[in-house]
Amino acid sequence: MTATNKKGGIPVWRDMGVTPNPAREDDAEVVIVGGGPVGLTLALDLGRRGRRVLVLNKRDIIAAGSKAICFSKRTLDIWNRLGVGKAMVEKGVVWNVGKVFWGAQDEPVYSFDMLPVKHQQMPAFINLQQYHAEEILIEAVIALPNVTLRWGHEVTEIAQSADSARLTVRSDEGAYCIDAPWVAACDGSTSPLRHMLGLDFEGRIFEDNFLIADIRLKQDRPAERWFWFDPPFNPGQSALLHKQPDDVWRLDFQLGWNIDREACIKPENVAPYVRGMLGEDVEFKPEWYSVYTFQCRRMARFVHDRVIFAGDSAHLVSPFGARGCNGGVADADNLGWKLDLILRGEAPEDLLESYNDEAIATADENILNSSRSTDFLTPKSETSTALRNAVLELSETHAFARPFVNSGRLSTAVSYPHSPLSTEDGLQGGITPGSVALDAPVGNGWLLDHLGQGDFVLLSADGTAPEIEGLRSLNVADLGDSEGLVAQRYAMEPGAAYLIRPDHYVAARWHQPSAHQISAALQRAKGLHA
Fold this sequence. Notes:
Among the domains are: 6-92 and 124-199 and 300-357, 3-Layer(bba) Sandwich (FAD/NAD(P)-binding domain), CATH 3.50.50.60; 441-525, Glutaredoxin, CATH 3.40.30. The chain is 28% helix and 28% strand. The protein contains 14 helices and 29 strands. α1 (37-48) packs parallel to α4, α1 packs parallel to α8 (324-343) and α2 (73-81) crosses α3 (85-91).
């Protein structure tokens, strides 16, 4: 299916139609504003935990066009926990290898593998158009009876009290109001909610523009990420090629700063770039062309009383490195279990300060890497250009130079070494508190699947760790670690145990834990005391 029409200048992938106004007052515990991948992931997470959720989407369409396509292993692990990961991988184009080219050379300067730790269920990356990912998430969300998704419902006003927020919502049928304890602002880079609260971004806008050309063609190329510095078809600039499902390809071309944005996306001006990259005789059909400007910015805080910001509404990064949507899904994963505990009365509202801290840590790491990538891609002086070219030249024959080649450091799970929810230790090896759990084969399945759908788990080497009421125990010896990869990756000796958070981050670990140590770490991980 190809988008052939537009609404409000937006290309339509699927027309959902405006949802009728509610016949009675809403009783949602969480209202999510924005029905993109971040809002839908949060809705699915909270919905599967039994929370009453309302999602409001301003538009009544699933948009086509040039949006997110690269989804990382961490995102796929999150989606797999929520029951949609396998569908994403099945539809997507799986890839692990990236290649970097320089100038007119046919052979890459070097290649890299994005999945250095093998024997994990999910691949390093898939390429999947955002509209496909949204459709998969939507089907999962609407299957939940406690989640409502409304299309064509726009939030126009917000007012907050000590224990709730009141939203004024408008659709084609008129306006109505909603009161809810919590509001999640997942309403994108221009975030109307952010503006309604008088908030803004801080950070850099880079003086460079890139052309995205999504085209349809049949061509037998490997499913790899190909990146060019100073190619003959875009001299002095850079370019990127990705394969997507359904014979659609993503091509990116660096354009520079002083450009005519409207002229750049005219088909007659895009065609020379495409033919220069893929060959003069290539036959292709345009899908969608657009121009974007690099930005690396974020809000000073993500939690504002009853309103919590996530995804592009909270932070923006340049797209090289695939850190935008993946970072937003990480926000949803971090936030969902914390809101659930608060709504169940099992954690204080102060637990949201840990979301603010950890989500900002993720955003700052993504912004740091994106800024460095952008500075390497777009050197602003003769000296920095000479340095970049020297790194590229050395990387052809000297392995030490290759880590300095920055064509976009690709998205990986971010660790929280200073998380207030972690119990620090002095142990060596394994996975440290504040880091995400690693997958490994066990028995006939995978460790992350056994960690479950979102509760705290005590992962023990042999079942000798004390049992704690209300805490699920998982025994590696019972699961079957025939290849020894769990023991190796977690540095597990007899008697050892890990406390795993609902988002599969390590909260604490021990060689020989006592019941008191486990209980104290669990309390800390729930924000009940420092």
